[in-house]
Design goal:
This protein is α+β, with helices and mostly antiparallel strands and 148 residues long. The protein has 3 helices and 5 strands.
Length: 148
């Protein structure tokens, strides 16, 4: 079954109404489980973070959803520019499919080396409605996966 990509649509932001939530913020926090996003910008950032952190096969009934950045932490060390291009080719189709209201501009990687097992990813993007740019920075270390 082929996946048909949706065309980006211009969403009229409901940011004008102060008490109208756009969506639920992801990932959930531990104090209040459901925190709401009240602006389109915040909700797009929340959805992008969710796509980047979710591994393929992790979401029920959507086995192709997610980039799975945490799985890339222990990949063999190669040139960062090559990793960045590879990552962009994985992230861009996911964003086009699941978050059509944003456009990926750049993806930057900073590596901690073999001994450190650290990976820092910054994704620069813009909203299609108003060309407002923002970024998401995620850090992955082997300490994130230790059971404490």
């Amino acid at each position: 079954m082929a996946i048909k990509l949706r065309k980006p649509i211009k969403i009229t932001p409901i940011d004008v109404a102060e008490k109208t939530a756009v969506g639920i913020r992801l990932p959930f926090n531990k104090k209040k489980v459901f925190t709401l996003d009240y602006t389109t910008k915040d909700h797009a950032k929340s959805k992008l973070t969710n796509v980047l952190l979710t591994s393929p096969g992790e979401r029920l009934n959507q086995p192709l959803f997610g980039v799975g950045l945490k799985n890339r932490l222990f990949e063999q060390q190669t040139e960062l520019s090559k990793k960045s291009d590879d990552l962009k080719s994985i992230v861009t189709p996911q964003v086009q499919q699941y978050i059509p209201e944003i456009e990926i501009k750049n993806i930057f990687l900073k590596d901690g080396g073999i001994a450190g097992h650290k990976l820092f990813v910054t994704v620069n993007y813009s909203l299609i409605n108003n060309d407002e740019e923002d970024s998401v920075t995620l850090s992955f270390t082997n300490e994130n996966f230790n059971d404490k």
